[in-house]
Amino acid sequence: DGANRPPGWFRVIPVDEHTYALAEPQYWQANVNYLLIGTDRALLFDTGPGVYQIGDVVRSLTALPVLVIPSHLHFDHTGRVGEFDDIGLIDLPVLRAQTKDGVFTAGAYQFLLPAGTRFPVTRWIADGEVIDLGGRQIVVIHTPGHTPDSVSLIDASNKRLFIGDLVNRDITLANVPGSDVKAMAVAVHKLLQLAPAGSTALEAHSEKP
């Protein structure tokens, strides 16, 4: 559906020469996905709501293999996960239990739409695991609060955090299924302790850090 995509659906915003925000300003939630590129592979943090394909946009920016890690499982963050072959999820018992023969099935309470979603999981990621992209190490941190399965990324060498919907500039939602305000506070403090001082946090519904 790339040919049918409205002009400007994806706004590609260089954060630096190896990092891009892939914003969808025409979507009602104005999702922002992030592409982090190393020398060996790239990491795509979220795949948007799925209205239009994102894979060709990613391929226009890098020819490297791409690992997809959703910040969490809501429909507007996993809409185009199926366009990619390498998908990682935070290693939680509840998510493992929902996976059969390598295929994860999210229920409506996780996806926030009745249909739910299914996709293969090629990598289970431990809390605090370092993803080596080649010359660039990204730490995956379990940061429940918005949802029980939410994760954030620490890009320490560039003093950046990628936080999904843990905290949002305009509206931070703590009333969706599985939300926990106290867990959210703990997760924020956890990131403050782990991230380099002065780090910038990039979220999933605003182009502004």
Would you write up a description of this structure?
A seven-stranded mixed sheet has the order 1-2-3-4-5-6-10, with no helix packed on it. Strands 11-12-13-14-15 form a five-stranded mixed sheet, with helices on one face. Strands 7-8-9 form a three-stranded antiparallel sheet. The chain has helices at residues 55-61, 75-78, 93-97, 108-111, 181-194; strands at residues 11-16, 19-23, 32-37, 42-45, 66-69, 86-90, 99-100, 103-106, 117-120, 123-125, 130-132, 137-142, 151-155, 160-164, 200-203. The model has no long low-confidence stretch (mean pLDDT 96). Strand 3 and strand 4 (42-45) form a beta hairpin. It has 209 residues and is an alpha/beta fold. Helix content is 16%, strand content 32%.
How would you describe this structure in keywords?
single chain; seven-stranded mixed beta sheet; globular; alpha/beta; 209 residues; five-stranded mixed beta sheet
Architecture blueprint of SSEs:
Blueprint: E1 11-16, E2 19-23, E3 32-37, E4 42-45, H1 55-61, E5 66-69, H2 75-78, E6 86-90, H3 93-97, E7 99-100, E8 103-106, H4 108-111, E9 117-120, E10 123-125, E11 130-132, E12 137-142, E13 151-155, E14 160-164, H5 181-194, E15 200-203
Parallel strand pairs: 4-5, 5-6, 6-10, 14-15
Antiparallel strand pairs: 1-2, 2-3, 3-4, 7-8, 8-9, 11-12, 12-13, 13-14
Average pLDDT works out at 96
Count of separate DSSP helical elements: 5
| Cα separation of the termini | 30 Å
Rg from alpha-carbon coordinates: 16 Å
Helix content: 10-25%
Question: Uncertain runs with pLDDT below 50, 5 residues or more?
Answer: none
> What is the tally of beta strands?
15
Q: Structural class of the secondary elements? A: alpha/beta
Q: Strand portion, in percent?
A: 25-35%
Q: What does the overall shape look like?
A: globular
Largest β sheet strand count, sense and barrel closure: 7 strands, mixed
Strand order of the largest sheet: 1-2-3-4-5-6-10
Give the topology string: H per helix, E per strand. EEEEHEHEHEEHEEEEEEHE
